[in-house]
Amino acid sequence: MRLRLVTFLAALAAVAATGCGALPDEATQGVQAADGRLQAVTTTNWITDTAEQIGGDRVAVTGLMGAGVDPHLYNASAGDVDTLRETDVAFWNGLDLEAQMEDVFETIGEEKPVVAVGEAIPEQALLSSADQSDEPDPHVWFSPDRWKAVATAMARTYTEADPEGASTYEANLEAFLAQLDAVDAYAQERFAQIPEKSRVLVTSHDAFTYFGDEYGFDVVAIQGISTQDEATPGDIERVAATIAERDLDAVFVESSVPRRTIEAVIAAAAQQGQPVEVGGELFGDNAGDRGTPGGTYIGALRQNIDLIADGLS
Q1: Which helix (H) or strand (E) holds 145?
Q2: Which of 241, 193, 239, 196 is nearest to 217 (CA)?
Q3: Residue of 20, 55, 180, 242 with fewest CB within 10 Å of its CB?
Q4: How many other C-beta atoms can be found within 10 angstroms of the C-beta atom of residue 197?
């Protein structure tokens, strides 16, 4: 599914439509608080980095989840709740990713803008997983095209809360959209090297459906969309059989998921006569540590692209 033009035009239209919105009294107080910058709180560091890119110098962003944190299992601490109560705006993924925090965001949303950025993506562009066909897959950040709608929703939210910064947010948005186009072009170039038969991405849990849709990969996961799902012996054998059938050389672990299920698959594949190695550790539900090459949205995506291209080609 390629919605590049539709998503991009819708994104720009949304910014244009809201750029001159009125500033609520509560938001005025927020802009004047702390060091004068707008205060934003985010969940995963995929969202945190994007919020920083769009907000620039006008926004102070506090991320609740660092590298290696599993958002499916994350519970808000008392300190997290206090931080959310003191912020001006909050961004979370939604689509049942931060399932343990839904009540918190619902409560905070009664007092201030709380945006589930995954729900900014047009419904027809959302995908479902084989194990939850009636629910949208929340791992939307692996599609740079769809992530444009997320970045645009952030720019719109900032502009509504801080109209004086509208030109800054619009310029930052345009720059980030260009980066998304660039990393997408890079992915297309790298993946052109992978033979058709080897375009199979085996991972710990079902986080890469959007990635597969974007770049033409069959995605085979041991666990379902949520890491709360337990892998069964049948899951291990199913994935091992796919590895043998497609003659794969590499499978991938994820930064926020234990390695034990992948190791079990490697052992099962070897028993079926198909030796396979770990092609690297992909950033899954979170990007890397701040200050490292994988610590930004673009950097983490490029690192994933390189690992997959090298491992499968």
Answers
A1: helix 144-161
A2: 196
A3: 20
A4: 11
